[in-house]
Each structure stands twice: as structure tokens, then as C-alpha cells.
Specification:
By secondary structure, the chain is mainly α. The protein is built from 19 helices and seven strands. It has one domain: Glycosyltransferase. The radius of gyration is 21 Å and the shape is globular.
Amino acid sequence: MATLVLLLLLLLVVVSHSSSTTHDYHNALHKSILFFEGQRSGKLPQDQRLKWRRDSALQDGFNAGVGVDLTGGYYDAGDNVKFGFPMAFTTTMLSWSIIDFGKNMGAELSNAVNAVKWATDYLLKVTAVKDVVYVQVGDALSDHNCWERPEDMDTLRTVYKVDRVNPGSDVAGETASALAAASIVFRSRDPGYSRLLLDRAVMVFQFADNYRGAYSSSLRSAVCPFYCDFNGYKDELLWGAAWLHKASRRREYREYIAKNEEVLGAGDTINEFGWDNKHAGINVLLSKEVLMGKDDSLKLFKQNADRFICSIMPQGGSHSQIQYSPGGLIFKAGPSNMQHVTSLSFLLLAYSNYLSHANKAVACGGERSVSSSQLKYLAKRQVDYILGDNPLKMSYMVGYGAKYPLRVHHRASSLPSVGVHPARIGCKAGSRYYLSPNSNPNLLIGAVVGGPNSSDAFPDSRPFFQESEPTTYINAPLVGLLAYFWAHPN
């Protein structure tokens, strides 16, 4: 009885804070994609829209003695390191957003595609050598010891790679997923580029599978504790095979999935999804094959996807495993909670659409069932919370709404731009800007920060990086969500 009462109270809280505002989802979509231009590394194009950013890291790969062009790509968050693992996941989710919701993006579709290509051009560079993946550019310790603009960087641009001797099936598997997913995006837009992406995905996946191991074992001092793989590499192998199956329709990948679904732990930690853990995403992605009547041999993934839904829904009864803040926000302990909010909400919406097309619902035990419309409502509730329907009445997207974070934990945004302050700002000279109570001088439009704590409180302070730092992998799934709700606001 106590559990039932708590569930009812939670539902009342969600309803009480439900959207009373009609949000401008198109405006938010535009800004969520624009954010990626603020994260660009390398030589910026003439059509760069965030003008306060300039060229940066133009010697990546050369100045580290590697002799390989590793310019381009994205800085993952508020620092100036290029971490391959989260960048690849970002690319996969941007691609999935376009695959499922690109038809809802209108004129923003071309900008979303450009955001994917900025990443894939870089991923093609880091995978150009067979059985090698360059997975990081920049020494995280020296970078995090400075507060300087990417345009001024003088920290070590050390290059790290995985290979046959030092494997990294996790980061290589995610890179293969990104390339395969992006090949679908470009299939009709640029067939030649699409084939290049798919062929490279096949090659990188073979490397990931043939030389198994976690990259945080091979490169621990470089990648931990920043993007250490806590979950192991098995999920990335299934994830990579799932995207290659979707992109190529080759039987070998379906057979790989069927053969390895239990060996590689398809049913593990079903309510987790993010750059480190792909389990819920694997199950939702592959369940579409079952729901569309294309492949009943994958029914285990459909069962796992249903379990995921029951674990995340407030009314999932004894199956519920997700915490919600008093204001109704999905909450998981650890830094950057919004990464969980957007990724899990994306899966809710994607699965809702798959269920709706198949005219199915999810059974959560007893007489409880969850409809596709309930999944959609919960996903929309999370998006609306981000955009301002929350106890603080604050948008957690920079530049959207009347009230949003002003002191974002982001070097380029918080320091004077090169246009305003042409002289170099040294490593420690930026500290006074970091500690300043003033607002960031450069608006990182569209950036969604880590978000409030479990009590819906938000400090809006740069030193509180867990709450105030934006990341590319927060925004990537949000792009798809905003596109859908722009087209279907009610």
C-alpha cells in the first residue's frame, strides 16, 4: 500500500508540473543543433554561424609526432580535449535522430546533417589505418589544469590510439556504430560518401570483434576518470552489430546478434543508456524488427525493451527502477544528469512510435500495461522540464526562454572571444574568468547543461561542473525529441 501511495504522489507531482506553456519546439530545435557549431574543432567553414568561435587545434596529429591529420571533430564538453568515445556516441545519436525524426525537422534537417558530417569526416580520419583507431587528442590532465580558449591552446595534444596490442572494443564498436548509422543518413543524399562510411564501419567492427578488450585497460591513465569504460565492451559489440545490420541488411550481422545475444549480455542493466552503456538502446533498436514483423528471431530484444519500459515508467509498479525529482525529472546519481534524461527520453519516444505503428502496448505485470501515448507523454514531460516547466521555471538550454544558465562551465564561452580580446589568454590567466560571478560573455546558444540535482536545485555556477557543463551527448538525442514535438506539439 505504501508503494502504491508513493507512486500516486509521484504521478500527481508530474501532473501538477505538467506543461502549461506552449513551447517553441522549432526554436529549441534550431538552437540545439546550433550548439554543435560551438563545439567544433579545426578549421571553421565560411558558413560558421557562431562567430565568436575561431579556428583551433590546426596541428592535431602532426604536432604529436604521429604524422596523421587528426584535425576536426568536436570538443565533447567544456574542455578542449577530443574524446573519441563520447564523440562517436554523439554521432550515433545525431544519426538516429535524423533516421527516425528527420522528416519532422523541416529546414533544420540540413543543419542536422551537417552536424553529423562534421563528426564523420573526423571519424574517417581516425580510422584510416586498418586495425587502428585514434581515440583521443589532447592530454586531459594538462587540459583540465588550464582555463583557456581552444584558439589559444598550448597544452599537450598527445594522441592516443587502440590497436591489436592495446585493444579497445568499446570505443571501436561505438565508432563502427556511428559510421554505420551515419551511412543511413547519407544513403540518398550522397551515395558515395554513404558507401565509404559503411565500408569503414565494417572494417572497424571487425577490428573491435577480432581484438577484444576495454580501452580503459589499455589507456587507463589517459581516459580515466574522464571517459573510463565502467560497463565493459560487450554491449558495444552488440550495438555495432545492430547498426551494421540496420545499415547493410547483411545476414551475417543478424546471425552475429542471435549467436551473441546472451554471451554479450543483451539483458544486462536494461535501464541504462549513454556513452558507456548501450543495453537499453540495443533492445529498443532491434525490437523494431520484431514489432514490424520482420524478424521474430530477435524477440528476446523486444522482451528486454518491454522490461526497460516497465523499469522507467512511474506507474511500472514493482518493476520501476528509476528515480524522479520532486519536479518530475528523471534522475540518476552522478555527473551530468541531463545525459540520462535526453538519452532515455529518446528511447521512450522511439519505442512509442514503434509500438504505435504495430498497435501494441507494454505489459508490466498483473493488469498493468503501458501505452505508446504514455511513453510519449513521459518523454514530452522531460523535454518540457528542460525547456522551463520545472520548479525553478528555468530553461536548461542556453538562449532559450527568459531564464537560462548564464555561467556555463565552458572555456570558450566564459572567456572573452578572440574578436573582442585578440591577445592570447594564458593557461592560468583564464582562472579569474572561471571564478568570476559574471555571466559568460559568449552565448553558447542551444547548450543544455548537466542540470539540477535530485531536489530540482541548480547553482548556475561554473565550478559546479556536474550541473553547469554542457556536452554533445546531452544534445544529440534531444535533437530528435525536439523535431518530433515540433511536428506533434500535442
